[in-house]
Structure formats: C-alpha cells, structure tokens
Amino acid sequence: MNITSHDFSNNMPAVSNRTQSTLVDRRQLLRIGGMGMLGLTVPKLLAGADSSTSRPARAKSVIFLYQFGGPSHVDTFDMKPDAPDGVRSRFGQIATSLPGLRICEHLPETAKVMDKVTLLRSVHHRMKNHNPAAYHALTGHEPPLDDIRLRDSFDLFPAYGSVVDKFARAEGNMPTFVSYPYTIRDGAITPGQHASFLGKSHDPLLITEDPNDPNFQLPELSLPANLSPERLADRRSIQQLINSKTKMLEYSARAQGLNDYYQRALAMLDNPRVREAFDLSQESQTLRDSYGRTTYGQGCLLARRLVEAGVKFVNVYFSRGIGGQSKTRGGWDTHGFNNTRMYPILKARHLPLTDQTLPVFLHDLDQRGLLDETLVVWMGEFGRTPRINANISRDHWPFCYTVLLAGGGVRRGHIHGASDKQGAYPSRDPVTLGDLSATMFSLLGIDPETTIYDKLGRGFPIAEGRPVTGVFA
C-alpha cells in the first residue's frame, strides 16, 4: 500500500488509487465510520505488558462525561462566597444533600444528589490551551508542549478506553470502548480520542449520530443490501468475501491490528445485545423526557444502556467544540469572545442542561443497582481564573479545579482536597491528572503501572500518577 499523507480533518489517510476502491468496498461491507476506525496508518507496535498484575476491580465500567471548554469551578462546585468582589461568583449558593456543602444556585436538582458523589477540589496541571489540556485530560499524560498547534498524532498516548480495551476487554462480542456523539476539536482535532500507538484494533466504536434524533440508529452495524442474514450466519463465507476484496496485510505491516478490528466488527453485526443496547426506543418516553430531549441528555441515557449491556468505557462529549458566543450550543469556553459575557450563557444553557441530566442520570444508575459498579467522571480540561476579567467572564485556569466522581467504588458524599481562599491553587491533597488516571485504572482492576510500548519500543506506565486511595469507599 502506498500511504502518502495524513489528513486528520477527516480522520482518513490519503491512499493510492490502486487501493482506494478496495477500501471503499470494505467500508460498504461493514459501514463502519468514525475517527481511526478505517484509517490504515497505524504504526507497527511492539505490544506487551511487563507489569499487568491484576487487582480486585471495584468498578465494572467507566462513563466519562467530558465537559469540553472547561467549566468554572468557582461558579459551580467550589464557590468562594467570602472572596473579594471581582473574585466571588455572580451566582448565589444553595444547600445540598451533603451537609455543609453549598453549590451554585442554578444547580438545584444537582444539589439533591451531592450525597452520592465525591468532589476532587484540588485537581491541577500546567496546560493553558484547550487541545493540550484536553489531551492531558483524555489520556492522563502530559503533552510535549502547551501549544494551540498541538496536533493529533500516533506518537501521542492513547485514550483511557483504548488502554482498557487492551488490558480488560469486554466479554463476548460487546465493544469495550464506545465514544460519541462527536470527534471534538478546537480548530484541529483534539488528540487523545483514539488508540494511537496501541493499534487500530483498540480504537473506540465512534458514533457520530445524534442520540436525540428520532431516527437514531447505528449505520455502523447495519447490513449491506447484498448481504443477507443467511450469509452473515455463514462466517466462513464472510471471511472469504473479505479476503477476495483485499489482502490487507500483504500491503503493509503497518496495517497490523485492522484484521482484528474487522473480525470484531463482524461479530458485533451478529450480536443482538449490541443492537439492543443502542436502541433508545426501548426506554419509556417519560424516562427519556426526564433525561432531557437533548443530544447530551439522550447521550447520557445511552451510556447507561451501554454499561448495562457490558461496555466497559464510554466517552460522552458535552459538545463538539469549546464554545463561544452562542447560548444554544457549544462548550464551556465562555471567556469573552467579542465581549461575550459568561454569566448569561451559563444561566441560559450550560447549567440548566447539566442540572436536568446529571442528577437524573445518577438517580437512574443508582435505582438500577448500577452506580456502585459504574464509575462516573464529570470533568473538563481545566477550570477558570478566580479573578473575573473585563468582559465579566473568566479565563483558562489549569492550576486548580474540581472534578466530580460518583459510583464505581468511590465514597459517597465526600470532598477530597481543597483549594485556597480564592480557588486559585490547591491548599490540601493536590491531585494530578496522572493521579486521576491511576485512580480510574485501579478501580477497574488494572494496575496503573502496567507497561505499554510506543512505536519505537519504549515502555511507559499507563498512568503517570498514583491512585487517590482517599476517595475509595
């Protein structure tokens, strides 16, 4: 195969004319789309694990609710009412179900479930730009530079879910790692959303359909018109059909891992549990309404269905981009584009959307007996400056912010760490993103010191920190 260049804007490599028709036929056969799912640019990996000693798992799965853009900790879960004017929030506070804890007045339903969660109030790192900070948050590994020009690359570390897929794959033919409903980006695609040097076989099942669409379905799992269920049942015939289209591994050793992926995808085609897990129509209209008829709301409901069916890691992205001026779409980055003020935007969209979905989601998991075995992580790439700027907003602040955890073996009604009087720096029990990464892996029963190897054969631990055992139940 003659691979000539990469184009991460559409997630597909440029290929020679000789092989392009073959790839199209394979896509038509499987109808599997999304970032990294069909790209043929993965480097050969010296795979292995030197220290993959298993440990007791407290969680069966993780649901990672990623709040792209960076929510303001001092306007949500770590308010500073005694701070001076220009620092303290323009929002008031309300009591919660956790005695002594007060949070933003625009989160009244969320306040009722704070006895179910742990707040990490001392999370910190050094990345001030969205893509580097988001990559750090999505992988637990610090990027080589804090630069808005950081681009997606197979040299960077893999997403959490890809690591889980390598060392603790889901049983049967269920996908281990599912990601939706976007490929997120701040200009360029944000790194850390796929398997990178672990190989394409560990990429997420990426769904770019809107779960709030009345016609939501999985084109990735639909059968081509010329492939009957009878032919699908004949696994040998399917394999022969694929082999007749291309002998992929004869083209390039760098395509290693794709055969495994295709085989798993075919197995999913024939798995009713997979199809049922993605079928939101099986939920009552009342429950769907309670989650919110929004992309994010229905995405969280879908996440519950997926872990219930056996998926181990689910990335749910709050938004496609970081945000800006809109009050109806976008992420949490609301710090003054064209004199935009953050408080009306937060009050109109971000906080109501969070307050409708997050508490219903946690209640639903708990009532079904799933919360204790499902770790929920609610976080962004950084917090916001303690001081309000000239646009009545706050700028990027990675030096201290809050992450919300629930279920999956963590304590209920607990606050770990603390920020200083203005919410600027940790004052007690600081937590790095490497520590958070190690905590998630440890709760899943994966040793955080397990080794992965990059394309040059260099070994690295899957996490750069230590588990925050103080949050363990």
List its traits.
two-stranded antiparallel ribbon, single chain, 473 residues, 9-stranded mixed sheet, disordered N terminus, Alkaline Phosphatase, subunit A, alpha/beta
Written description of the protein model:
The protein is an alpha/beta fold. Helix 11 (295-309) packs parallel to helix 12. Strands 3, 6, 7, 10, 11, 12, 15, 16 and 19 form a nine-stranded mixed beta sheet that branches. It has a two-stranded antiparallel sheet with strand order 1-2. It is globular and about 70 Å long. The termini are far apart. The chain has helices spanning 17-30, 108-111, 130-139, 160-167, 229-233, 235-245, 248-251, 258-269, 272-277, 285-291, 295-309, 342-367, 433-443, and strands at 3-5, 14-15, 61-66, 93-95, 102-104, 117-124, 177-180, 185-186, 188-189, 205-206, 313-317, 374-379, 383-384, 396-397, 401-406, 414-416, 418-419, 426-428, 431-432, 451-453, 459-461.
